[in-house]
C-alpha cells in the first residue's frame, strides 16, 4: 500500500503545542500534543521554554518521517503572536522568549509615546491599542534601550511562527500576518513599517518580508518536503473561511479571547474603536481585517466555577446544558440587563448576587445572556459600512447551545452559524501553501455549519 501524501502542521499555542498530519482532503490522519513546563527569564518572570519547543519540533518530525504509511510533502506553522525570538549570527537564540504578559516599564512607555506623537496618534496609525509587551515591537525597543549589549548581538528578531520555520529551512523571513497583529510596527495608512522602526534602526534587525504562501526548501533531513514561512494563529484560523465563502461575513473566534474578525471592513480605526479594543490584523493575502476583542472565555471559566461552588455542582454539568427559552424570558423580566449593543469589557454577571437565582441552571443562563450582550456590543463595532449578512462562530462557544441561540436572537437581520472545523488555525496554515504540496482541489466541506434561527431561539 502506497504512503499517504500529507502536510505536517505545528500549531503552537500558549498552553498546548500540537502536531497534525492532514491528508489531501484536509482530514486529520495523525496528531500528538505536548505541554512544556515554563521557565523564567532573567527577571524571574515566567516564559516559554524555547529549548523544549525547539527539540520537540525536531523530535516530532523525526518520529513522523519514520512512519511508513505517510509521505510528508510539506510542513507549516501557526503560532501565537506578540513573541520574538532573538537570534545571533549563527542562528542561536540569544535571549528567553519573553512573555507578552510581562509588565512593560512605565517610564520607557511614556518616553516612547512622547517621542512618536502621543498614544492616540500612534495607536491609530499602527492599529494597535496600547498593550505594553503585547505590542511586540516595543519588546525590541525595550531591549535596545535596556540591554544594549544584547541588542548589538542580535542578527535577526523573528516572530515565533517564523522562528519555527527557520529551524527547518535555515532561512530568515518575516511575515505580514505576524507583523500586522497589534505589534505597533506597521503603518496601516501607508502599508509599510511605521517610521519609528526606521528612526530607531530596528529595520536592521528584521528579516525580509515573505509572502504567506511562500514555501522554502527544507534543511532538516527528511524526504523532499517544502517548508512554509509560518502564520500568526488568529490570521491562520480565518483562511478556511476566506477560501470557502465569498459573501461578506464576520467570524467570531471563541476561546480564552473572543475575537470578532471582519475581513470586509477596512475603514480606518477611530479613537473610540481603539479605546474599545478594536485593532487591525493583516490576512494572509495582505488585506486588512478589522477586529474587536473580549476576554470573555476567561470570564466564562471563572464564573462557571463560582456558580458550581455556590450551588454545590460539578462545573462539567454546564458544558452541554440545553437552551431553555422560558428561563431566558423569565430572566429578562426579573433581572436588570445590559442595554443591547452597549460596549463593555466585562459583563454584569460578576456583580450579580447568585442567591437571586432559584437554580444553577437559571444562574448559568444569566451568565451566558450577559456574555452574549457583551459580545453583541463588541461585534457591532465592526458592522459599520459593510454588507455582512452572515456570522460564523467557531471555537468553544460554537458548541454552547445557549450562547448560539441567544446570539442568533441578537442579530435578527443575519444568518448565524456554529462552525465546526477540526483545528482551524492548523487547517489555515495547511491551506495557505496548498499549491506546494496538494494536487487535489480544495474540498468544499472543510467547515461544517449548523444554522441557528433567530425566530426559534427565544419565546417572547
UniProtKB/TrEMBL annotation:
Annotated source species: Mucilaginibacter lutimaris
CDD domains: ASKHA_NBD_FGGY_NaCK-like
Pfam families linked: FGGY_C_2, FGGY_N
Superkingdom field: Bacteria
Name of the protein in question: FGGY-family carbohydrate kinase
InterPro entries in the record: ATPase_NBD, FGGY_C_2, FGGY_N
Enzyme category, top tier: transferase
UniProt KW Kinase keyword: yes
Homology family: Belongs to the FGGY kinase family.
Carbohydrate kinase FGGY N-terminal domain segment(s): 7-195
UniProt keyword annotations, A-Z: Kinase, Transferase
